[in-house]
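Teaching assistant here, posting this on the class forum so everyone can see the example we discussed in section. The complex has two components, and the goal was to see what a joint structure prediction looks like when all of them are supplied at once.
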Amino acid sequence: MLDLLAKPLTWANFGIMLAFAVLFLLLILGYVTYAIYFERKVIGWMQFRYGPNRTGPLGLLQTVADVLKLLIKEDTIPKKADRELFILAPAITFVPAFAALATFPFAKNWQFADLNVGLLYYAALSSISTIGIVLGGWASNNKYSLLGGMRSAAQMISYEIPLVMSMVGVILMTGSLNLRKIVEAQGNWFWEWNFLPQIIGFFVFIVAAISELNRTPFDLPEAESELVAGYHVEYSGFRFAFFMLAEYVYTFAIAALTTVLFLGGWHAPFPFLDFIPGILWFLIKMSFCVFFMFWLRATLPRVRVDQLMGLGWKLLLPLALANIFITAIVKELLR
Amino acid sequence: MIRTEELLLNVGPQHPSTHGVLRIIVKLDGEIITEAIPVIGYLHRGTEKLAEDLTYTQIIPYTDRMDYVSAMTNNYVICHAVETLMQLEVPERAQYLRLIVMELQRIASHLVWWGTYLLDIGALSPFLFAFKDREIIINLFNELCGARLTYNYMRVGGVKWDAPEGWIQKVRDFVTHMREQLKTYDNLVSGNEIFLARIKGIGKYTAEEAINYGLSGANLRCTGVKWDLRKDMPYGIYDRFEFDVPVGQNGDCYDRYIIRLEEIRQSLRILEQAVEQFPEGEIMGKVPRVIRPPEGEVYVRIESPRGEIGCHIVSKGKDKPYRLKFRRPSFVNLQILPKLLVGQPMANMITILGGVDIVLGEVDC
C-alpha cells in the first residue's frame, strides 16, 4: 500500500486507490454494524440479559434490520427548523468521521495516507464533527436539542485541548506527527510502548477521548434522562442514522488512535510473537479499546455538565501540561 | 451586548425522568433553573370521590392503583382504617402475613427507586440488577395472591389468601439472598465517585423546612428527624419487632439514598423475625358479611415506603363511606420541589426529583 502511495498518480493507480477506499469504507460500515451488535451484547451480558438474539443467527442481523428500518422511515423535518442547516448538520458530523480514518497505519504497509502531520490532521478533522452536532442542535429549533448542542460545544472546548495536549508527550518522544513513525518508534516489547512512559498522558488521553466521543460517562449532549435525546431529538430516519454512524465511526477512530499512540500499533507484545501478522495485533488492541468504552457505558453514571468542565480545565489540562513538561525534561536529560 | 432571554422549557408530561406524567414548567437561564412549576393531575382519577359510591371491600382494588409501586401498604391503610372504626380483631396469622407482605413491598418499592434513580443519573445497569431482585418479590406475591402489581390482597378483618406451602421458606431464602445482593449494590454503586459527586450536597433542606412542608418518610429522616410511624405510633404488630430507624444529617440526596438502602436492610431484619414467629391459625377475623362501620370518623396513618400514608373515613353507618380522604405521601413530598429547584442546573433537577421518590399514581390519586 505504501508503495502505491509513492507512485505517480495515473488513472490505473487512481482506480486501485479508489477500490481500496471503497473496500475500507465497506469494512468500516461492517465494523459499525457489528460494533453496535457487540455493544448491545456486552451490555446485555453485564445486565443478565441476552442482548439481541432473534434477528438472524445469534441476532447477527439485528443492526442490519435496525438500519433498514431507519432508512425506510419517513424523513421528517420540523416546520420551524432551519431547513438547510438541519439537512447539512448530519453530513458535517459524519463526513469528517470517515475522512479522519485515512491516516491510520493498520499494519506496517497498510495505510491510506502517509501524512507527515497525521496526528494534527486527525485532531483537526475530528473537531469539525462537533460543529455538526451544534448545528443540528441549533437548527432543530427545539429547546432540548439546543441545550444538547450547546453542551456539546462547551464540552468540545474543554476536552479538545487536554486531548491534543496529551498527545504532545507522545510527539515529543517520537519527534514526529506521522502516525506510522509514532508506531515504529515504539519498541518490540510491550513495556517499550508509549503507555508506560506516558502513563499520565495515557490517562488524560483516555478520559478526554471518551468525552470527545460523547459517550458515557460524558454523554451530556444526549443525556437521555435530562434532555430526552439532546441534539438529535428532532432527527429521524437516515439523518438520525448518520449521527449514530458518526458516533460509532469515532469509537473506531479513537480506539485506533489509542492503539497507535500508546499501545504500540501493529507490534506484538513480545518479539517472539511476531509471526502473527501485525494487522491482527492491531485489531486485537483496538477491539480491547472498543470493549473498554462499552464496558464504561454499562458501568458509570453520567457526570454533571459543570463537573465535566471542572474536570477538563482543572484536572486534565494541568495534568497534560505537567506531562509535557516532565517528558521534555526527561528527554533532555537522557540525551 | 448579547441579548439573552430566559428559556421556558416544558419538561414532561412525556419525559423519561419524570417517573410518569408529571409536568414541570421550568424557566432556564442557560442551564440554571430560575423558576419551576410542577403541574400535576394528568393521572387524576378521583379515587376519593369514586370511593363514596363503593362498598368498603370494593375500594381496596382502587387503592392498589394509587401507589402502584407499593400496593400492599395502600391495601393495608384502608383495611386498617375500617378495622379501627369497627374495632375489629384481626387474627394473628393474618397480622403476620400482612406485615410480611408490607415489608417485602417496602423492599420492592425501594428497589424500583434505586434502579430508576440510577437510571436518571445515567447508569444503565443498576436498573436491571434491581429489577432482577424485585422480580423475586413479585413472584412471591404472585404465588400468594395471583397478581404481580395490583394485588387486592387484604380484606377488612384479615387477608384473602393464606400462604401456600413452602412460601415462608421462600421468604426466608429471599432474605438471605437480598443481604448478599445489598453488598453487591454497595460495591457497584454506593462508592462511585461520579455518583457521589452528583448526589452529595444536592437538594438540601433543613429539618425545620422538612417539617413545615409536611415531608415524611426518607425525605424527612434525611434531615435527622427520627420519625417512623412503625416505631413511634406502632400499628398492627410492629411493636413486636426489633429494627432501627436510619436517619441522616445533611438532608441531601446522598442521605436519602443511604437511608433507603438502609431501610431495605432493616426490612430484612423485620422479615427475618417475622418468618421465625409465623403462627398457625385463621386468616380472616369474624367480620359481618356486609361491612357497615358505625357512624363516626377515623384517621389512621402508616409508614409506606414513600412516607406517611393516611386514610380518613367519615362513616354515616352505611356500607359505603360518606367521605374518604387519603393523605398521599408522594403528593405532599412533591410540594417542596419548586423551592429546591431554584438556582440548580438542569441536571440537578433530575437528581432532586428522583430523590424525592414520587409515584404519579399517588400524587394525582
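For the discussion questions: Chain B has a mean pLDDT of 88. DSSP finds 15 helices and eight strands in chain B. Think about how each of these relates to the inputs above.
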